């Protein structure tokens, strides 16, 4: 692992910026900086968002787990619980459909000139994040309900990760093939 | 190559594979998964500090995510720049007040769209921090690490999103 590079603060800020530029470039070229494309996905008429996400997952997953096997990277799975993930996920979904952007794509939408993203959505997300921070002390107990922590699927099943990666990759490829063949 | 960079759209599979490869490098070079929503939370804390003149970093939430510029904050700033470069190269950069799908359904008035975007943004901001991640942090980075929390979260993002979108566009009869 490149521990020394990871600890250089200024280099990391620069790397974050450069990688963000690449991510924003890709999101814009993929068309997912557009409200119409994201809402098209949520209305199940345009599957661009799902195609991008699933192909990123397959490519990313295989590479990350190969590098993990060679001890080049370490994983950072997020913690979860029923109170946190299920309830928060549904709240996020409602906001996602009202706004028509998510935190990453809204940044790309701002970059291509969407003013509803800048003056409406961005202001809203900043307010919502601040509201949550102030609700947090009162919510701490609720967020722990049904806690399962920072576990991965292979850890949960107690199997070699490739026994999960290979079937999931095949299912994703099959799903994408079906989507394409029905013309979505 | 130059022509390729000026295209308005790339194949979603190429873009997806590119994001997957980018995530290899964020893990390898920065020991970080791709993510966006904590940058908004940190910014919100920074704005609160500016307004109140008091540090928020003693607050229980900002103890976990201090109100400061970090890797992810720079990453989100980069997204705006990268998208601007891409849109400028293809001639797509243009100031737009209301998206066309919205306009076709709800008309050209700016205020209703901005109000719904603001309310949606507030709910999305609360939901992202509640679930501990967004479509990037859970939806791409968490799922590719096979995190249980992230697969659960992304399924619920879409369940909530699909139901709400149908309701907005088709009403109760949808």
Notes on the structure:
- Chain A contains 9 helices and no strands.
- Chain A has 184 residues and is mainly α.
- In chain A, helix 5 (82-99) runs antiparallel to helix 7.
- Chain A starts with a helix and ends with a helix.
- The model of chain A has no long low-confidence stretch (mean pLDDT 97).
- Chain B is globular.
- Classes of the chains: A mainly alpha (184), B mainly alpha (174).
- At the A-B interface, helix 2, helix 3, helix 4, helix 5 and helix 6 of A face helix 2, helix 3, helix 4, helix 5 and helix 6 of B.
> Strand tally of chain A, please?
0
Helix and strand run of chain B: HHHHHHHHH
Low-confidence stretches of chain B: none
Oligomer type: heterodimer
Termini separation of chain A: 41 Å
Unreliable stretches of chain A (pLDDT < 50, length at least 5) are: none
- Beta-strand content bin of chain A: under 5%
Number of strands of chain B: 0
Explain the layout of strands and helices:
The complex is a heterodimer of chains A (184) and B (174).
Chain A: H1 3-6, H2 9-30, H3 35-42, H4 48-69, H5 82-99, H6 103-111, H7 115-143, H8 153-157, H9 162-181
Helix pairs in contact in A: 2-6, 4-9, 5-7, 6-7
Chain B: H1 2-5, H2 12-30, H3 37-52, H4 60-64, H5 71-89, H6 100-106, H7 110-131, H8 137-144, H9 148-170
Helix pairs in contact in B: 3-5, 8-9
List its salient traits.
heterodimer, A: 184 residues, mainly alpha, 9 helices, 74% helix, globular, B: 174 residues
In short:
The complex is a heterodimer of chains A (184) and B (174). Chain A has helices at 3-6, 9-30, 35-42, 48-69, 82-99, 103-111, 115-143, 153-157, 162-181.
């Amino acid at each position: 692992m490149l521990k020394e590079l990871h600890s250089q603060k200024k280099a990391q800020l620069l790397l974050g910026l450069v990688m963000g530029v690449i991510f924003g470039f890709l999101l814009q070229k993929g068309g997912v900086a557009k409200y119409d494309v994201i809402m098209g996905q949520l209305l199940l008429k345009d599957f661009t968002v799902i195609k991008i996400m699933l192909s990123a997952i397959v490519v990313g997953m295989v590479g990350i787990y190969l590098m993990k096997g060679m001890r080049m990277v370490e994983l950072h799975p997020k913690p979860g619980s029923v109170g946190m993930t299920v309830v928060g996920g549904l709240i996020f979904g409602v906001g996602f459909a009202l706004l028509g952007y998510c935190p990453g794509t809204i940044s790309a939408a701002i970059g291509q000139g969407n003013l509803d993203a800048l003056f409406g959505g961005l202001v809203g997300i900043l307010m919502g994040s601040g509201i949550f921070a102030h609700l947090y002390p009162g919510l701490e107990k609720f967020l722990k309900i049904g806690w399962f922590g920072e576990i991965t699927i292979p850890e949960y099943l107690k199997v070699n990760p490739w026994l999960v990666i290979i079937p999931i990759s095949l299912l994703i490829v099959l799903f994408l093939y079906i989507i394409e063949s029905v013309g979505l | 190559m130059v022509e390729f960079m000026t295209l308005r759209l790339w194949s979603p599979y190429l873009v997806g594979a590119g994001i997957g490869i980018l995530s290899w490098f964020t893990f390898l070079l920065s020991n970080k998964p791709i993510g966006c929503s904590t940058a908004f939370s940190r910014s919100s804390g920074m704005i609160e500090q500016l307004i109140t003149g008091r540090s928020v970093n003693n607050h229980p939430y900002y103890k976990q995510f201090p109100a400061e510029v970090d890797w992810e904050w720079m990453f989100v700033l980069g997204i705006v720049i990268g998208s601007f470069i891409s849109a400028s190269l293809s001639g797509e950069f243009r100031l737009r007040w209301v998206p066309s799908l919205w306009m076709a359904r709800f008309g050209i008035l700016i205020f209703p769209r901005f109000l719904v975007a603001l309310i949606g943004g507030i709910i999305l901001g609360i939901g992202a921090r509640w679930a501990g991640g967004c479509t990037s942090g859970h939806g791409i980075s968490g799922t590719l690490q096979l995190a249980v929390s992230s697969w659960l979260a992304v399924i619920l993002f879409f369940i909530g999103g699909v139901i709400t979108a149908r309701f907005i566009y088709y009403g109760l009869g949808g």
